[in-house]
Amino acid sequence: MDCSVFIRHASIITLCTFGMLTVQGCTAKLYSQETKQALEAEAQLITQRFGGTLKPKLKAAIQSGGLVHAVDICAVEAPVIAQSLSSKTGWEVQRVSLQPRNTETATPDEHERTTLVWFAEQQANQSEAGMLKSSQIVNNTYRYMQAQPVEGVCLNCHGTNIDPAVQSIIESKYPSDMATGYQLGQIRGAFSLAKSLE
């Protein structure tokens, strides 16, 4: 059997042309490189649609109601966009962060947390945040994550010098908020996509 096994931050990625393999006590199907590449391409397109839908809504909110109005766009509208994309594509789509604002929708699972930590380590080693991604097959589920760096507009609600009126809205709506103190270009979180291969 022609098989390549890659190990990344304690997770096993297996790419094979055929057969079955037991991975960490679970029986996992083996998938071709072509299958994995097709899944990654699809995941990247969905991620682009996510960002391409969210950014215009954020800009429009700032223009119409200022930064106070923009607070809910990232924390509330983003999950709505994610749910819509999930329904339309058959993928599980969301954004997650090690420092979530909306803890109900953005708290990472174990796989996502491990990947976010790995992203942070790579950025610390001078990797460009916007280029960081992870593509793995875990328990017959394809998992794709793409780091989301802090852009200039993000600093208004997630930076170190937040307008008091904006800070007050954040504290009232999200008392468990952890999503402040970021610097430009720092990893804010990640787009996280999953698709069952069963």
Describe the structure.
Mean pLDDT is 85; it is low at 1-28. This protein has one domain (35-196). The chain has five helices and eight strands. A four-stranded antiparallel beta sheet has the order 5-8-7-6. A two-stranded antiparallel sheet has the order 1-2. Strand 1 and strand 2 form a beta hairpin. The chain has helices spanning 33-89, 103-106, 110-124, 155-158, 164-173, and strands at residues 3-8, 11-16, 20-23, 26-29, 92-96, 133-138, 141-149, 187-196. The longest helix has 57 residues, at 33-89. The chain starts with a strand and ends with a strand. By secondary structure, it is an alpha+beta fold.
Number of strands: 8
Low-pLDDT runs: 1-28
Structural class: alpha+beta
Radius of gyration in whole Å, from Cα?
18 Å
Distance linking N and C termini: 22 Å
